[in-house]
Write a structure and sequence with these properties.
single chain; 377 residues; mainly beta; five-stranded antiparallel β-sheet; 48% strand; globular
């Protein structure tokens, strides 16, 4: 999804896992630059936000053809229990229902800025994010609307996904915040990638939420506790290969395969369809055990002293630092310190930090850094 045409400066870059995930371009000009979706036959669909069509992709050769056309800004999509495709026309302010032959009808007219779509599990009640309305709405099969989630945490919501337990998550396009949505509509922040720019869509696979950092040209991953990292990408490009060379050009749509072992990505900048495999192989750096560390922060939110609780399986070199939401280091409490096997409580004095959202970044034995978010009151 792309809401505003602006230029952005060179952005802060985080390290990524080396020689793990593999990126392959499936179609260099698919026409798809936005949301991705599988039907129940395993066929892939993609939206062209800067165009007017929804495309269907042939899994035999990854060629794409127009499935349905005539829209203003095709955006999020979802299938109902009868196999009908629903599509959010973001700037057209409509939600369409599309039959299997590509013919269309308006499901909801005059819906302000619809963006992401997903159906309630075991229900044909549609859940819709309103990008400019900063809210999430439920729409019954008869078209009746009811606000589901609102509040200041929503800032341009777009992407929606479920985990294996049926828990629903939403991602903000504007500030990259990823939140858990409770059954009553309450929101809890899970993670917020550092740096600046926009978060495209989100998807879930095998314990992790993956997102596209649109303006950073990166692919992001967080577990459900907020331990997050950049896994792929740096500067803009279209290079295939492992994490040491792979490049994306404004990645936007992202979708896990039904088996959750492959990701599909639409590059907004080129309309290329990309594939990511080998999502979670063992790291080639035997000392890079950061992702296996058990750690947590508390209290959160915090006013004065934040405690980092850490459990180590052996003597380990530990580095902690605090970053602001632009990726800038604002606190480095201890540099690199070797700590023994067992549990550790490491206090961080955040009294002098202005109120806002920050990240504690943890690095073990000079390996890949991961981070958790906290709120300073």
């Amino acid at each position: 999804m792309f809401m505003k045409k602006i230029l952005w400066p060179l952005l802060f870059c985080f390290p990524y896992w080396v020689n793990a995930q593999q990126v392959t371009t499936l179609n260099v000009n698919s026409g798809i630059d936005d949301a991705l979706l599988f039907d129940d036959q395993g066929r892939l669909y993609g939206a062209h936000y800067e165009g007017s069509a929804v495309y269907r992709v042939d899994p035999d050769d990854w060629s794409s053809t127009v499935f349905s056309d005539g829209f203003v800004t095709p955006n999020g999509m979802a299938f109902d229990s009868e196999g009908r495709l629903y599509m959010a026309d973001n700037q057209g302010n409509r939600i369409y229902r599309i039959a299997s032959d590509g013919s269309t009808e308006i499901f909801v007219n005059n819906f302000f800025s619809p963006s992401g779509l997903i159906f309630e599990q075991d229900s044909d009640t549609l859940i819709v994010t309103s990008y400019e309305g900063d809210k999430i709405v439920k729409i019954a099969p008869d078209g009746g609307e009811q606000d589901f989630a609102t509040g200041s945490l929503l800032d341009g919501p777009v992407g929606l996904c479920y985990d294996d337990e049926g828990q629903l998550y939403v991602g903000n396009f504007n500030n990259r915040r990823i939140m858990r949505i409770e059954d009553n509509g309450d929101l809890t922040t899970i993670s917020q990638p550092s740096g600046s720019g926009w978060l495209g869509f989100i998807t879930y696979a095998k314990g992790y939420i993956y997102g596209t950092l649109f303006s950073q040209h990166k692919i992001y991953r967080t577990d459900l506790m907020g331990n997050d990292t950049i896994i792929l990408g740096s500067s803009a490009g279209t290079i295939d290969g492992d994490a040491s060379v792979a490049r994306f050009n404004q990645p936007n749509g992202i979708l896990a395969s039904p088996s959750q072992d492959t990701l599909y990505v639409s590059d907004y900048g080129t309309r290329s369809l990309r594939m990511i495999t080998e999502l979670l192989p063992p790291t080639t750096n035997t000392e890079d055990v950061t992702s296996q560390i058990k750690w947590q922060l508390g209290p959160n939110p915090v006013m004065n002293q934040l405690m980092v609780s850490l459990e180590l399986e052996r003597e380990t070199q530990v580095q902690l630092q605090v970053l602001d939401n632009q990726g800038r280091k604002v606190l480095a409490p201890n540099g690199d310190i070797r700590r023994g096997q067992g549990q550790h409580q490491i206090p961080l004095d955040v009294t002098d930090l202005p109120a806002g959202t920050y990240h504690v970044q943890l690095r073990i034995n000079q390996g890949t850094p991961i981070s958790q978010l906290f709120v300073k009151l």
